[in-house]
Amino acid sequence: MDIPPTQLPHGGLSLVRGFSTPELFQLTFGQLVDQQAARYGSKDAVLVGWTNARLSFQDLSLRTKELARGLLAMGVGKGDRIAILSGDDERVVELFFAAGRIGAVLVILNKTYTVNECMRALEHTGEPCDRDSETLTD
Fold it and tell me: What is the model's pTM?
């Protein structure tokens, strides 16, 4: 059952309580990656042993910009949901930050989900955009 946000407490927005210092960052995911790339450059940002992936902060910034441009070229935009059935490797990290750069939402479905579990998760997250996953990894 879907409840309109206007009928939820605080208009459907999260309510955060606690200390006010340090202040929360006011950055987009793209700005965060770029900031870390400027700060840490060639230092390791992502290491994945089973794929032998090693991405520096600078690599992550560049790769997520390229992937974001590719997503835009495919017609994916702000507010779109990208659902992937995935494990946990460097491609998930890249896609997470690339989606964030363009305002899209990455919905990560566990690769051990059954078909019914995937369908139920997708019902709760909204309709994902319809794109071929192989295109994203090329």
Answer: 0.75
